[in-house]
Design brief:
By secondary structure, the chain is of the alpha/beta class. Helix content is about 30%, strand content about 30%. It has a single domain, classed as Dihydrofolate Reductase, subunit A (3-Layer(aba) Sandwich).
């Protein structure tokens, strides 16, 4: 059975975006891209909220063909074209795009059906609103947090709508030369 993995950048004080959705504080470089690419390439399913999906669709399908495309752009663009994309949205209709499924309702049932249909991980990229819904339904199995050495003071918090104590186990950590730390936690299931 697959697991649902939240793959997020977060500030040291626990925010995933600034008050108006700003993400200009997130540090990414070749070292982080290489590390994340190994993880991302091991999965064949990505889950997004509608806003993040639209942002991804606006960039990744053509990123590799741009004249200034980086190695990361080319690799991730190829992966993005083939990956099965799941979008959580109450407003989107079923997508006619290749490899894209829209989940509008019955979140626990649909996510558990997805988990049972694969032995790989389903990665949640960014998508704070979708992640909050998944956390509230207790559906997230792992957290991969790229903790950036910055304090935002206010913004969109990562952990919201948690209705009960949730025990996590630190499985792995990795410190990047930039000061970003990747922390991998698994949820302890009772």
């Amino acid at each position: 059975m697959g697991s649902l993995v939240s793959f997020m950048h977060v500030s040291l004080d626990g925010f995933v975006a600034g008050q108006n959705g700003e993400m200009d504080w997130i540090h990414v470089d070749d070292e982080i891209f290489e590390f994340a690419a190994k993880r991302i390439s091991a999965t064949d399913s990505a889950l997004y909220g509608r806003k993040t999906y639209e942002m991804m669709e606006g960039y990744w399908p053509t990123a590799a063909s741009q004249p200034n495309a980086t190695k990361h752009d080319m690799e991730h663009s190829r992966w993005y074209k083939d990956v099965s994309k799941i979008v959580l949205s109450r407003t989107m209709t079923e997508s006619e795009r290749i490899h894209t499924t829209v989940i509008r309702e019955n979140l626990p049932f649909e996510i558990n059906k997805l988990k049972q249909g694969t032995d790989k991980e389903i990665l949640i990229f960014g998508s704070p609103t979708a992640t909050h819904s998944l956390m509230a339904a207790d559906l997230v199995d792992q957290y991969w947090l790229f903790v950036n050495p910055v304090l935002l003071g206010q913004g969109i918090p990562l952990f919201q709508n948690i209705n009960h104590k949730t025990a996590l186990t630190l499985v792995e950590s990795h410190v990047f030369s930039s000061g970003v730390i990747c922390l991998q936690y698994h949820q302890k299931w009772a």
